[in-house]
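#data-curation
PF: Archiving a pair of folding outputs for the training set. Convention for this channel: one message per protein, sequence first, structure tokens after, nothing in between. First:
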Amino acid sequence: MGVRALWDNPARTVIRYELTGNWTWEEFYLANEQSRRLLLEVDYVVHFIVIPDAVAMHYIPTNAITHIISIWRKAPANTGVTVIIHQNPLVRPLLVMLRRLNHRIGEKYHIATGEEAARTILAQYLTR
């Protein structure tokens, strides 16, 4: 499977999305449903980390902005921030464009170039 969602830590404060290869939005939406089920198990804010493999690290499926907006609009109330590990040079401009389209969406997404940097960003929200 190209995308899966699971708890990242025993405290159940972070959900990890694992992206494999040239994943599809259909695969993402299936994992997103699993993520929604996990979110409904708890009554506090849960954050997300998106961890791609070596291929997915440089891949973005088509119509990313449309899908991200759709996912954000349907997110449960206890959805926190999402930190995406990515090295594709198009991801940062994509995030800038999202922030221009809708500031509330843009402030929910962060980009990191590696897992350590992503976890540093997440730690800022986990201590709030």
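PF: Second:
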Amino acid sequence: MMLWKKVLTGENRRGFDRDILTAQPQIDAVFFNNDDIASAGIYRCQCRDQHIPQQIDIAGFNDVDASAWINPLLSSLKTPLYEIGSTAAQLLI
């Protein structure tokens, strides 16, 4: 397992394939901190002819509606916002 911690923004999203996929060609899964960046990761993998999920798994975080429109479908973790807010309010009371 390798942890790669880097903030990806609009300017450096394209660097993902250069920095990770080229430097670590044996990598078989990437978890992104949000679905927007994960969808960009899917695109960059497809540009490199890497097949998802056969060669590399991609997952995101937030479970935004647009993740259902990406091909292949994006695996995403949903943030339980209501439960987090409810628990925080109960702790404050």
